[in-house]
Specification:
By secondary structure, this protein is of the alpha+beta class. The chain has two domains: 243 residues, GROEL, domain 1, CATH 1.10.560.10; 147 residues, GroEL. It has 17 helices and 20 strands. Strands 8, 9, 10, 11, 12, 13 and 14 form a seven-stranded mixed β-sheet that branches. Strand 9, helix 8 and strand 10 form a beta-alpha-beta unit. Helix 1 runs antiparallel to helix 4, helix 6 crosses helix 7 and helix 6 packs across helix 11. The protein is elongated. It starts with 8 loop residues before the first strand and ends with a strand. The protein binds adenosine-5'-diphosphate and magnesium ion. The site of adenosine-5'-diphosphate has 24 residues, from helix 4, helix 6, helix 14 and strand 17.
Length: 514
């Protein structure tokens, strides 16, 4: 009896397990070489020829066209890592891959999948305890936050700019949005602009919108601006009954022209009389109106997109006005300074010191699109980790030191675990070794030697990581070198990798409909 359609494909038992494990491992393997400060970048070319150059695990996995469902689960590990804590995506994916690799060996030794799953969960619990023990004693102050930012950006194409000054900008941005209700991460935006070296990257105390003045004669800077936002077309009403004339004499023609001009002048007058000195409108502005407003020294931006209009409204406290007759001062927003600047093909409007929101923008500069794109990702990660570290106040040593410490604790506790489950718990520790091993391999060191040295240093000195410091690679206490990661990044990596690996291991039947 057939209960499945003839076209559906079914794999069962060991075959299903091993094909899933292989796919998951392969995906994790594909990002391994990008891990750490000496990690390499990947160039991804899509079918349309678009190129992305990146070192970011989540970005790589998402740009790759991955179809296998088990492999897709590793991509989800990176995605959830990115979503929850914003960094550690490569670590999480590589860890998940290695947990699968270890599971494969266990299955070959006839350890049952459920035993592996139980062992992994127990080991993950021990890992979380170990992470708690690794949390540094020192306060997470600006210096530590900068180290967190720098550690997350090393190895990213920061385009010649010293990571230190970028890290400073990132910390300043997060400090700006640190309120009694926690860090308002969403109030930090990143705006990229090609055309200058990345050294020109700076923090703008406000928002940036892609807009140019409606008229060349308008001021490019307005201080202490009173801002109106209009959803009103400042043009003659065409298609309107009032606007249709039967012209049979020159007098009537003149009267019609006068009526139009009067209408346009009326708009300009109403706005000038209202007291607004900067106007954003989502509709068009007639040239004549723009000229009149320019003569009054009013700065106008026309044809604003809805999201820009909303952003300006929320930053300045302006209420959007739907009819010119309703325009009154109560609807105005304000900002310390609005200025416009031309960048080659692009014009930008900077709205600084808006009255309503404490929004800040990291204005990212770089020579080419690839540079600013990768910089934007690196800064996005750094903003996330600094926010995470500031909120929890917990950081752990990076450079593999935390993974070495976790693995050590797991191995010690494994001794007290009975039966085959002990093998699974120990296997989890072996999987964790992938982080220091990979950091070593990516610096050209022998991974096994490095692991042995790191364990010995951990045994005798406590914290021991494989530090890349300029051209040097040394084994030392990462805290002393400022190589620190938020504790939550490690926790999330352990949890999401365990979840995906155990889910894949448990599957022994794959039924695919065609
Ligand atoms: P992920 O996507 O997992 O964040 P990264 O390529 O950003 O991958 O690498 C992060 C790892 O690099 C972390 O384990 C971090 O502690 C480590 N790291 C950062 N800076 C250094 C450094 N100077 N020396 C050694 N390891 C470092
Ligand atoms: Mg990172």
């Amino acid at each position: 009896m057939f209960i499945l359609s003839e076209d559906s494909q079914r794999t069962q038992g060991r075959d299903a397990q091993s094909s899933n494990i292989m796919a998951g491992k392969a995906v994790a393997e594909s990002v391994r070489t990008t891990l750490g400060p000496r990690g390499m970048d990947k160039m991804l070319v899509d079918s349309g020829g678009d190129v992305v150059i990146t070192n970011d695990g989540a970005t790589i996995l998402n740009e790759m066209d991955i179809e296998h469902p088990a492999a897709q689960m590793i991509v989800e590990v990176a995605d959830s890592q990115e979503e929850e804590v914003g960094d550690g995506t490569t670590t999480a994916a590589v860890l998940a891959g290695n947990l699968l690799g270890e599971a494969e060996d266990l299955i070959e030794q006839d350890v049952h999948a459920t035993t592996i799953v139980e062992g992994y969960h127990e080991a993950a619990e021990i890992a979380l305890e170990a992470i708690a023990e690794e949390v540094g004693e020192a306060d997470v102050d600006d210096e530590v936050l900068q180290q967190v930012a720098e550690s997350s950006m090393t190895g990213k194409g920061t385009g010649g700019l010293t990571a230190a000054s970028l890290a400073e900008t990132v910390v300043e941005a997060i400090r700006h949005v640190d309120t009694d209700d926690g860090v308002q991460r969403d109030n930090v935006t990143v705006h990229t602009q090609i055309g200058a070296s990345s050294n020109a990257t700076e923090l703008v105390p406000g928002i940036i919108v892609d807009e140019e003045p409606a008229h060349d004669g308008m001021p490019s800077t307005v201080e202490d601006a009173s801002i109106a936002i209009l959803d009103v077309e400042l043009d003659v009403r065409t298609g309107d009954v009032d606007a249709e004339y039967a012209i049979d004499s020159i007098d009537q023609l003149n009267a019609a022209i006068d009526a139009e001009e009067g209408e346009l002048e009326g708009y300009a007058e109403t706005i000038a009389d209202s007291g607004a000195d900067v106007v954003f409108t989502t509709e068009d502005v007639n040239d004549r109106v723009a000229t009149a407003l320019a003569n009054e020294g009013i700065l106008v931006f026309e044809g604003l997109g809805d999201s820009d209009a909303r952003q300006v409204a929320s930053a300045t406290g302006a209420r959007r006005v739907g009819a010119l007759d309703d325009l009154e001062e109560a609807d105005f927003g304000s900002a310390d300074r609005i200025h416009t600047e031309n960048f080659g093909d692009d014009d930008l409007a900077f709205v600084e010191g808006g009255a309503a929101a404490e929004t800040v923008t990291v204005f990212v500069r770089g020579g080419t699109e690839h540079v600013v794109d990768e910089l934007e990702r690196a800064i996005g990660d750094a903003l996330d980790v600094v926010a995470t570290a500031l909120e929890s106040g917990e950081v752990v040593p990076g450079a593999g030191a935390t993974e070495i410490a976790i693995a050590d604790k797991i191995r010690q506790e494994a001794a007290g675990i009975e039966g085959r489950k002990q093998l699974a718990v120990t296997a989890f520790a072996d999987a964790l070794d992938v982080v220091p091993r990979t950091l070593a391999a990516n610096t050209g060191r022998d991974p096994i030697d490095a692991l042995v040295d790191l364990r010995a240093a951990h045994e005798s000195e406590g914290r021991a990581g494989l530090i890349t410091d300029g051209d040097e690679v040394t084994i030392a206490d990462p805290f002393e070198y400022g190589v620190v990661d938020p504790a939550d990044v490690k926790r999330e990596a352990v949890e999401s990798a365990t979840e995906a690996a155990t889910m894949i291991v448990r599957i022994d039947d794959v039924i695919a409909a065609e």
